[in-house]
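As practice, study what follows.
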Amino acid sequence: MHDRVRDTVLGAYRQLAEEHPELVFVYGETGWPWGGRFRPHRTHQNGLSVDFMVPVRKDARSVPLPTHPFNKWGYAISFDREGRSGELQIDFEAIAAHLHALIAAGREHGVGIELVVFAPDLQQHLFDTESGAELRDKIRFNVNPSWVRHDDHYHVDFRLER
């Protein structure tokens, strides 16, 4: 990924480790080090796109989303309209904290968030959290479903601002 996006992502994780050490976050795909087509993604070609796996809770504890070859590294996990998949529950408050941390770290590195792609049927749960209420005014979210349901991860397109 672009070096300023990398620094933004790492800065956000540092902030979250200090403010929310109990939360577990897993990042997904970025792109090739040399750029270019990154199948099956339509983006992820210029170092400005990152997939973040949804933070989840099991028995009220933050746990890593299970990622292994048999569930396509977490991309084959399906969540219902309430954000549940078996014993796992999407932690919408943790997603909100992560997005706020990305915004803050991005300011330091001259990086903004262009778009967040997340399953439209789950977005209201995010906006209903204490931290997520103001996100819809700070970040542009997709309105229509994408060709792949983004319920197991949220895709972030960054932009360079300086």
About this structure: The chain has a mean pLDDT of 88. Residues 3-160 form a domain with the Muramoyl-pentapeptide Carboxypeptidase; domain 2 fold (CATH 3.30.1380.10).
